[in-house]
Write a structure and sequence with these properties.
The protein has 184 residues and is α+β, with helices and mostly antiparallel strands. The protein has helices at residues 2-57, 60-64, 68-73, 75-78, 119-126, 128-140, 144-147, 150-167, and strands spanning 87-90, 94-97, 106-115, 173-183. It contains 8 helices and 4 strands, in the order ααααβββααααβ. The relative contact order is 0.12.
């Protein structure tokens, strides 16, 4: 009889320990989900604060031109039809080294610029070496982590558009399209 009682006690202890283990696992999973939700909310709200601070600090001269960030964030940009896209100005392929501490990384990107008028193409042809230089400087200042995400590519596009629009006089660059984007 004592053996039967000890077997029953062992079974009860195993049941209790397996129930306790299951409760701990469920609690950890719930904490992970809640933590992920909090991190997501914080990251999204931080981007919105950064964008609103950048827009508020923009000089009055830039207010005359439509900011790339404003156009990208508007619903018109998302739902634009192909027929509404302006003249495209293709650039040669860029192959640049990325800023990296751990080994060599490079980016191969082919870019097309959307222009708001055909006259701008002539100015871009004349300033092609300067434009390539500025884009190369922007791309080489980025790390793999900065450009590997969708938001990172968008920020690079915004930076290219803002830089080019500050240089040109015959119109605006509306958007940047990456037709090839390879990181190695």
């Amino acid at each position: 009889m004592p053996k039967e009682e000890s077997k029953e006690e062992n079974k009860e202890e195993k049941k209790k320990s397996s129930k306790l283990l299951m409760i701990v696992i469920v609690a950890v999973l719930v904490l992970i989900v809640i933590g992920g939700a909090i991190v997501t909310v914080l990251l999204l709200s931080d981007d919105e604060k950064t964008q609103s601070a950048q827009q508020a600090a923009a000089p009055q001269a830039q207010e005359q031109r439509t900011s790339y960030r404003d156009a990208r964030n508007s619903e018109d940009m998302v739902s634009r039809k192909l027929s509404e896209i302006g003249t495209l100005y293709p650039l040669d392929t860029f192959t640049v080294n990325l800023k990296s501490d751990a080994g060599r990384r490079y980016l191969k990107a082919t870019i097309s610029l959307e222009l708001d008028g055909k006259q701008l193409g002539v100015e871009l042809d004349n300033k092609s070496p300067v434009i390539r230089d500025r884009i190369i400087r922007i791309l080489t200042s980025k790390t793999l982590e900065e450009i590997s995400s969708k938001k990172g590519k968008q920020k690079v596009s915004e930076q290219i558009v803002d830089t080019l629009n500050s240089m040109i006089t015959d119109g605006n660059v509306r958007s940047v399209y990456f037709t090839e984007f390879v990181i190695q």
